[in-house]
Structure formats: structure tokens, C-alpha cells
Amino acid sequence: MAKHIDLPGTIPIFPLPGALLLPRARLPLHIFEPRYLAMFDDALKTESRLIGMVQPDPLSKREGGDGLYRIGCAGRVTQFSETEDGRYMITLTGMSRFRIRQEIESFTPYRRCEVSWEGFDRDLETDESDPEFQRDAFMRLLDRYFEAKGLSADWGTLKEADDELLVNSLSMLLEFDPEEKQALLEAPSLQTRRETLVTLIEYALRGGGGEDRVQ
Q: Lon N-terminal domain location, by residue (predicted)?
């Protein structure tokens, strides 16, 4: 994995509401707007091949700010394919979260920001554990949520996934509001992300139910 010394101080930014990328997780993206095609082409020319995923922050925009949440996650381009009409299907693998210091004025058609990687050391580890995870109760709660939402799932894959992959994949894939996605992103550890995820699922189920309540 990359070390802080290898992470650049300035990265291209892809603002996308509801799109959550987490360390060591993979995010597929469909790139077709000219400015983001240029961003992708430029990213491939760098050693790090990093693109910073950040959600727009409506409150910041209303208050005269740059309209971005302060914390995002940078992903490395690890796979891509080009369509016949010049679009790209790419995969970003999450490397580390970052904090935006300031946006940089430049001649590029896409946005670029000066960022800090400090405080996110655990993102650069090989994996993260959650010793308090009550997996059986969590899966029962998830089953109730999927049933209530009319969703189907590959339960075999979910049951075989390790704790981090399970929690992070669900955090990225389930439909939550942008501010709720941001709370999942900013969770300082896998345990707090799992607790936040459980709270959001229980909230969607109007508080969850007795024995399936997971702390």
C-alpha cells in the first residue's frame, strides 16, 4: 500500500452526490462528461493515478463556500475499458481518505484541491477488524431491511465476505441520503462505521425490532 510520503498534496476532484468510496473498496464509475474524461486522461499520466471522490455539500454552497464536503476518499484507477463512442468504464480502488485544505485555481476543466492525508493512517493498513461485530444479529437485521425494501441479495456472497468487506460494501451500495453517506465515510473506525450503518438501517425500519437490535 502507499505511504503518506507517496500521496500527492494535490489531486483531481470528482464531486458526485451519493457516491461513496472507502479504503480498500472498489467503486465502478461511468465517465462520459468531457471534463471528467480529461481528468481521467490526466490521472493516468501520474504515478499515483489518484482521483478524489467528494460529495457536494449543499450547506457549504449556500454559505458561499466551495460546495464540497471537507472529507473525501481518493481512489487509484485500477481498471478501465473504453467504449466505441469514447466513454470509459473505470474502477477506483480506495486508498485513503483526505481532508480538503483549499481548492486550487487552474486551467483544467475539472476541479483540483490541495489535500491533507493526516489523521487517516489506518486507511493505509492492509485491513481493519471489528471485534465487537455481532454478525448473526447483523445479518438478521439486514434480511429484514432487504425484505422491507423489496431488495434481493446474494446471501452466499454476503455470508462469506469478511467483516470489513461486508460493512464497507453495504455502506457504499445501500441507498442513503448524501449526509448519511458522509457520516459513514467519516466514521473513524470500522466499528463506528458498522454502528452508524446499523443505526441507519434501524432508522429505515422505524427503529428496528427488539432481538434484532445490534449495538
A: 11-205
